[in-house]
Amino acid sequence: MNVLLISTYELGRQPFGLASPAAWLRREGCSVRCLDLSVETLPEPAVAGADLIAFHVPMHTATRLAVRAVARVRELNPRAQLCFYGLYAPLNEDLLRRLGAATILGGEFEQGLASLARRLATGAPGAAETGQAEPRVSLARQQFLVPERDGLPALDRYARLHVTAGDLRIVGYTEASRGCRHRCRHCPIVPVYDGRFRIVQPDVVLEDIRRQVARGARHVTFGDADFFNGPSHAMAIARALHDEFPDLSYDVTIKIEHLLLHRRHLAELRDTGCLFVTSAVEAVDDRILGYLDKGHTRAGFVEAVGLLRRAGLTLNPTFVSFTPWTTVAGYCELLATLVELELVDHVAPVQHAIRLLVTRASRLLELPAVRDLVGEFDEQRLVHPWVHPDPRVDRLFETVTDAVTDGQRRDEDRRAIFRRIWDLAHEARDGAVPGSVRLAARASVPYLTEPWYC
Prior knowledge:
With 454 residues, the chain is of the alpha/beta class.
């Protein structure tokens, strides 16, 4: 059986979401082609010759791009079985089935894809209602296989790690766990995993990294939603990684709540090669953090900044800068906080223009204030649209978005873009631009060259 696995966008990373199921499907005897449309064009012969075509949809942007690609795929090959798998597959099941998907797989999808391939090869029937026998969402504890990255674009075609102007490192990517033990209201992981997470066995993680190092990786991103969901599991991998590759650096994502709770591990993260920690701070307004059910406060964020700084780790904070509860004054306060904490250089400009996504099945819909505000689900945008009660906030969002887009097009640095955003925000608040914002001496901040985080 010929299987085509397609990724449309995975944040500038070589897709684990293709490499992992490729190993499972090849074990079933399938001929597997992996295609990453973020760096490749659609190969018509490979599409036309596939018996099973499966799109990985781990996030909002990836799903919208996959929806656009489906029409051309169906035109080239109307007979192939079509599957969507990943976090956003079950969230958008109705739309994806209307586009021709016979199989929807969420959660731990490798076993489901292997089962689907066996069923198609033997002609075994699916369920009467959906046509699939595999669980729509599986949280089964899997014994993972080492991802097979043969046939994927080379690592040097993806985002690099910028350490200094003269030090750009090839980056590998892996996952030590999936899901999350927390239930933040706005997070798309929650409708699928509902506060649970599943580990990838350490020997699999380490062998995956070993193979990427052999292909040139000098830095590794761990894509876990939270590296400290299982801190013992995570730290064991970090130690083993450093023992084998003492010159290899890495980065992780950890909640503010977990940075505070597991602060005893921060120095060891640094000593084992961690360069920076991404954390979804989201807001510095406790009221907004409460609506999002983030599990931390503004004070906790400030404390975490100090902990990481003393440990010698760089914080890479991300934000949902525009929400239904954001005010123009509150947005100015967010910018002022970044200046006060000397984090301007740490924040990718796009983070100043992230707007809250209310996806299908979002826990935000538990809040009457949200249900009263949002519109019906928009299948083109894959969200419940909302309009801010204060038109000035939506206008500020548009002008900030334009400033970020224009600044990135001009290849301006983070400080230049921040100064423009500062002026726009204060003009929206006061009707006049204040004097130039004073920034601390420029920091040397390592970061990945792919700026998006959604």
